[in-house]
Write a structure and sequence with these properties.
The protein has 249 residues and is an alpha/beta fold. It has seven helices and eleven strands. A seven-stranded mixed sheet has the order 3-2-1-4-5-11-10, sandwiched between helices. It has a four-stranded antiparallel sheet with strand order 6-7-8-9. The termini are far apart.
């Protein structure tokens, strides 16, 4: 089973410790420092739309893009219940196309790491550049190679009353990919249904991603420690990038 097919229905319950508000607050601090007040945004690999919803509440015209139809279905329902508006599109990021340019592009929760072919990652960044208006900004985060390598051999457990999830990490030095198989048990009435998904993340280095951004045409590139306005330190688990598309002269 592909990533997020079965997981979509239980994703929010299993990730209820993720502080989306803090993530978007960091975006807002970056925007303030850059002197930007975006009106339009795209939430790349938007998943169940948690970041999309916060951006919509800020008054932005938001488009959520994701490859998983199942996750987009949950996202659409979430925004409908919250009486928020957003447009959702099922697309692969390497083929990203928006009918109109946007002022802000964000990609949260190490979603770029899920692009396990570096050539496709570079294409995706090029597509983001084309989707931005002149002067627009791209903000995203990734897991560091140190974090992904440390997941090798680790076993993790997430559960609540209706979901039980066990996943095991394995890092392949030859492919530079961390794979984690996920056994998912979901309760439906009195019956538990079991499914299996495999998730894979490529361990992109800061230099590698910086090179892709520069090749795409981005400028004013900066890398931050995890939601901190300082350079990443030794053993950093997650880093944030911001990059600007140059203004028309």
């Amino acid at each position: 089973m592909g990533a997020y097919e079965a997981l979509a229905a239980s994703y929010d319950r299993l990730t209820n410790d993720v502080d989306y508000e803090a993530t978007v607050a960091f975006y807002r601090e970056i925007l303030q420092q850059e002197g930007l007040r975006p009106r339009t945004a795209v939430d790349l690999a938007c998943g169940t739309g948690s970041v999309t919803a916060i951006l919509a509440r800020m008054g932005l015209e938001v488009t959520g893009v994701d490859l998983s139809e199942e996750m987009l279905t949950v996202a659409q329902q979430k925004l409908w219940e919250a009486e928020l508006e957003a447009r959702f599109v099922c697309q692969n990021l390497r083929d990203l196309w928006l009918p109109r340019g946007v002022d802000l592009a964000v990609c949260a929760l190490d979603s770029l790491d899920y692009i396990t072919d570096p050539r496709d990652c570079e294409k995706a960044i090029q597509r983001v550049y084309k989707a931005l208006n002149p002067g627009g900004i791209f903000i995203f985060d990734v897991n560091t190679p140190e974090k992904l390598r440390a997941m090798d051999g680790q076993v993790f457990l997430d559960e609540d009353d209706d979901v039980y999830c066990v996943w095991r990490g394995e890092f392949d030095e030859q492919t530079n990919v961390c794979s984690y198989g996920m056994d998912l048990f979901q309760r439906q009435g009195n019956v538990w249904h079991r499914s299996f998904e495999e998730h894979r993340e490529y361990a992109y280095s800061i230099d590698q991603l910086t090179g892709y951004l520069k090749n795409a045409g981005f400028t004013s590139i900066r890398v931050y420690a995890d939601r901190k306005f300082e350079a990443p330190g030794e053993g950093e688990q997650r880093v944030y990038f911001k990059a600007r598309k140059g203004k028309v002269k």
